[in-house]
Amino acid sequence: MANEVIEQAHADLASGQAWRARDLLCKHLETAADAEALAVLGGVLYGMGDLPAAGAAWFGTAKRGAEVDEAIKAWREHHDEHFGNMWRSLPRSVRRSPAVPRVEALKRKAIERDELDGKEPYVAPKPQKQGIDAALVVAYIIAALLMVCAAVGLVQILSWMTPGS
Q: 0.70 cut: is pTM over it?
C-alpha cells in the first residue's frame, strides 16, 4: 500500500499535479507512520514553495541536507519558535510515533510551553473506531439465535418428559 501511494505521488508529480500528490500523501499519513512517504511529502511541499509545511514534514524524518535545513528554519520562523504550535503543525502520524528523538524532544518542550501558556498539555488522541464493527453485529445475532434455539429446545424436551401434556 505504501509503495503504491508513493508511486502514485511520483506519477502525479510527473504529470504536473503536485497538489494531487500532496493530498494523496497527506491522506496516507493521517493513519500511517511512513517515513518514506513523509520524506516525499516534504519534497512535494518544498517544490510547491510551502517551506514551513515542508519543514514540518521533514522534521519527522532522518532526512538531512540544505533544502531540509532551509525548510525547517522557515517552519521554526513561521511559528516564532513557539514549541506548542510547532508540535501541533507536525503531521499526525509524526506526533503519534516516537521514532525520531528530536520529535520526542519537541513534544516535551511543547508540553512545557502549553503549561506556561495555561493550556492543557497535549495528549495524543487515541484512534477512534469508525462505524459499526460488522463482525460484532453478526456475533450478537448468532448468539441471540442460539439462545432462542436453546429455549425452544428446552421447552420441547420438557414437554416430552411431562406425561399428559
A: no
